[in-house]
Specification:
Elements lengths: L3 E5 L3 E9 L3 E11 L2 E4 L4 E3 L8 E3 L4 E5 L4 E4 L4 E7 L4 E6 L4 E5 L10 E2 L2 E2 L12
Antiparallel strand pairs: 1-2, 2-3, 3-4, 3-5, 5-9, 6-9, 7-8, 7-11, 9-10, 10-11, 12-13
């Protein structure tokens, strides 16, 4: 993964990177310096700007999600999701148009370009997945 430093202070820095999970997004992540070790703050890259039509996807098939309270649920067809963050390897954070937040587990087999959700290709779950290029 490539990243660029976009901000530096005495004990922290901020990186920017393109995240290609359920679409292509610009994302930022903050790191703190403690005992000469950089440690990420939080567990996800934050998509910026997150609130754009580009980062919204319409669900076409029930998609499993873990809600922020830990409840296992599904978002059904017609639900509009906005990508808000990702760790770039195992999950994508989303919010629905009505404010429900959750985390979708994803996996990417070695050598495959696309991501899988519950064993199915990501493209089966959405009307469109906004990848660049």
């Amino acid at each position: 993964m490539e990243a660029a430093i976009i901000g530096v202070s005495d004990n922290s820095l901020q990186l920017e990177s393109t995240q290609n999970v359920l679409g292509s997004y610009s994302a930022i992540r903050a790191y703190a310096l403690h005992d000469d070790v950089l440690t990420p703050l939080g567990d996800a890259w934050q998509i910026v700007p997150a609130n754009t039509s580009y980062s919204r996807m319409t669900v076409v098939m029930d998609i499993p999600v873990t809600l922020d309270d830990g409840t296992q649920s599904v978002f059904g067809p017609g639900t509009v999701l906005q990508v808000t963050g990702t760790d770039g390897k195992s999950f994508v954070d989303v919010i629905t148009n009505d404010g429900v937040t959750g985390r979708i587990a994803v996996e990417q087999p070695a050598g495959d370009w696309q991501w899988y959700i519950d064993g199915k290709p990501e493209l089966e779950y959405f009307e469109l997945v906004p990848y660049a290029g």
